[in-house]
Amino acid sequence: MTSDVQLATRPADVSARDRVDAAKNLVVSFVLNGKPLSVAVAPTELLADTLREGLGLTGTKVACGTGDCGTCTAILDGEAVRSCLMLTAMVAGKTVETIEGLAGESDIHPIQQAFIDTGAVQCGYCTPGMILAAKALLDENPKPSADDIKEAISGNLCRCTGYTKIIEAIDKVANAVA
Amino acid sequence: MEKLDIVGQSKQRVDALVKVTGQAKYSADLRRPDMLIAKALFAKYPHAIIKSIDVSKAEKLDGVAAVMTAKDLPGRNGYGILVPDKPVIAERKTKYEGDPVAIVAAVNLDTAEKAIALIEVVYEPLHAYDDPREAMKDDAVKIHEQHPAAEKGNILCVLKLDRGDVDKAFAEADIVIENDYETPMVDHAYLEPDIAIAELDSTTGGLILTSAGQAVYATKRCLAPVFGLPQSKVRVVAPVIGGGFGGKEDSTLDVCAVAGVLALKTRRPVYFELTRAEVFRTTGKRHASYIKHRLAANRDGKIVAIDVQTILDKGAYVSMGGTKAPLHGVTMRTLVYAGGTYAIPNARARAYSVFTNHPYSCAFRGFGAPQVQFAVECQIDELAHRIGMDPVAVRTLNMLKDGDMTITGQIMKESRGLGLGECIQKVTQRIKWDQPIDHGKGPVRRGKGFGAFIYGTGIPLAFEGSSAFANLELDGTLNVAVSSTEMGQGIATTVAQLAAQTFGVKYESVDVVFSDTGRSPDSGPTVGSRSAVMVGNAVAEACRQLRSRLLEVAGKQFFQADPSTLTIKDGLVYVEGRPENAEKVATIAARAFVSQVPLSVIGTWFPPQPTFNSADGQGEPYHAYGFGAHAVEIEVDTETGVINVLRSVLACDVGKAINPAIVEGQMEGGAAQAVGYGLMEEPIMAAGVMQNTGFHNYMIPTTKDLPDLESVIVEHSNELGPYGAKGIGEPPLIAGAPAIRNAIYDAIGVKINIIPLTPRRVLEAIRQQAGQAR
Amino acid sequence: MRPFHYERAATPAAAVKMAGTTPMSPDQPSVATPVQYLAGGTNLLDMMKIDVMRPDRVVDINAIAETRHGGIEVSDDGMWLGALARMAEVAEHADVKHRFPVIAQSLTLAASQQLRNMASIGGNVLQRTRCPYYRDTSYAECNKRDPGSGCAALGGFNRMHAVLGTSKACIATYPGDFAQALIALDARVEITGAHGHRSMAFAELHRRPDDEPHMETRLAPGELITAFTIAALPWARRSKYLKIRDRESYEFALASAAVALDMDGDIVREARIALGGVATVPWRASAAEHEIQGKRLDERALAAAAEAAFADARVFEHNAFKIALGKRTLTRALRETAAMET
Question: Are B632 and B738 within one domain?
Answer without folding.
Answer: yes
